[in-house]
Structures are given as structure tokens and as C-alpha cells.
Amino acid sequence: MSAPARQLPLFDDAAPVVRWDTLDERARGTRFVGLPIRSILNSPAATHMGFWSVNPYIGCEFGCTYCYARDTHRFTVERAHHDGALDDAAFREFTGAEGWEAFEQRILVKRDAAAVLARTLDPRRLAGNPLVIGTATDPYQPAERRFRITRSILETLRGFRGLSIGIITKSPLVTRDIDLLVDLSRRHQVSLHLSIATADARLARRLEPRSPVPSARLRALGRVTAAGIRAGVLIAPIIPGITDDVAGLSTLLASARAMGAQYAVGSPLRLGPAARRRFLPWLEREFPALAGRYRRHYAGADHVTPAYQRALSSRLDRLERLHGFDPDAGLREMREWREGAPAPEPQALLL
To answer: Is the Cα dihedral 116, 35, 197, 225 positive or negative?
Structure first.
């Protein structure tokens, strides 16, 4: 009797799991992993923002307590697990036991970012919208010294003309690329948004344990503006009850103006689910008197209330004028970043 015909497989259950290659590992346990990519540009339709964005890394060594980008790292890892790029063991490693530490200890490096950008960037698709580098990571975090992904992206943009390019960073490492930024400013409209949450070094160390001190960032701002590059300060996030006081904001604005900042923009705290897991326990330890109010508010919202936003905007407007800034210049610079007003709530969180 002849053997039965072999059934053709309906599914390939033996498909190999694609593993992310380790590129480097630090003594403190931080690991840098190559992330295979087919695209690098994030469209306004995908992000619900008014600009295109490019992020050379996912995750950030600075590990700021409040960082909203923790959610981006979590989404990337969950999607990779769902698609089979990470097995269960790797998924547990890349999410972390505490649910937040992987963001700053497992940095995903987009090694092919420049090549993919050169192949896929069509200025016509941007339709005049800005291209912003570093919306969900710091493009000049310490890893950039070795991997130079951000610099390679900027070098790629040399091959285009007439774009509106923004860069967000809190790192003085940006001064390494002053020559390139000057060249790009001849071809494009370039703006550097230097992120500083506070000028108080002690408070900054509590909020951002591994970030460059505020004075180093301000010196970098001075070097950039002295080179003729358009630059301003992004006061972000402004944390209710902690960094929103008049004296602190006034000191920061005065320091930025002295370093040649051409505009200033403030943005209040936003806490998504992953960011909450890091920030709220920190708040319990460092500012326990505020913790209960934060937990009640952010249990059902990612944003501050409209009332708080209005009060903060009024305060910033007044202080910017006091220190010689044109508030409208900052609004024009960042107008396209607005995400729309959050849902109405009965009262402000803090004032």
C-alpha cells in the first residue's frame, strides 16, 4: 500500500525568531542593541502631530524621571514581540522587571537610519511641514559619541535643500556638529531646541540623574548661537508645583537670553502609562506632599488640565516679555507641535 500523500503545511511554525544584535554593553548594565528598520520617517498621520519626525535611537541613557518617551520604547518592544522579532525571554528583558528601567538600560540603535532616510525622504511628501530630530529620544545622548547616527542623518540632509529642520536635545554634545549645522543652515531652515527643565542644578540632578547639568547646556546654547545657528530653549517639561514657580522660570529665561536664545517655549508635564510607573514613585520619595494630587489627576489623564495650561501660558508670556523674548516668536516656532487641547476638566491640578 502506498504511503499517504504528505500534507502541505498551512503555516510555517518553524520560522526563525529574529534577534536584535548587541552592539555594546556598559559596565553598569546598559546594553545597546541594533534595531533593524525599513523606515525612519514618522508622518504626522502616524504621530498626530503637525510635523515629520526622525529618532536615531529608541530609549535614552539620560533616563529622566518624567520622560514621556518611555511609552515609545514600550510600544516598540511590544510590537516586536507580537511580530515574532523577540521571543518571550527577550521580551521580559526588554520590558524590565520594574516596567520602566529598560528604557534607559536597553537602548535600540537604528544603525541604518541614514541610508534608509536617503532612500525614502521625498521633500514633496513633507509638504512644507517641519522635520524634527529627537522627539522621542535624545539624539545626542552619550551613545551618539560612538554610534554617530545623528551626525550621519544630518550629513544625509546635506543632499537636500529647502527643508525646515528642528533638533531637540539637552546635551552639549550637539556642539560637536556645529560645522555641520552651519552648513545645513545655508541649505535649510534649521532650529536647535535646547531642552532645559530648570536652571537649578540641585533640582535638575534630582529630576534627571544622568543628564548634563543646566550650566553646561546653557554654555552649549551660547556656542551654537555664536556660530549663527538659530536656537532657543524648550522649557520642558514644566512640572506643576516643582518647576513652575515664577523665580525659577525667570532665572532660566534670563540665563537663556544671556546666551543668545532667540525664543523660549514652555511645555507642561505629560505622563503616559509607562512614564507614570517611573515618575510617580519618584514623586512619592522626593515630593510626598504632591504625590496624592498627582496620582488622583494622572489616574485618568496624561495631560495637565486646560485651566492649568492657561495659567501657565499667561505666566510664561509675562516672564518672556520681561526678559526680552517675543512670546509670539516661540509660538510660531512650535505652533505645529500642538497636540490639541486635552478634554475639559473642572479645575486646575496645581497653580
So the answer is: negative
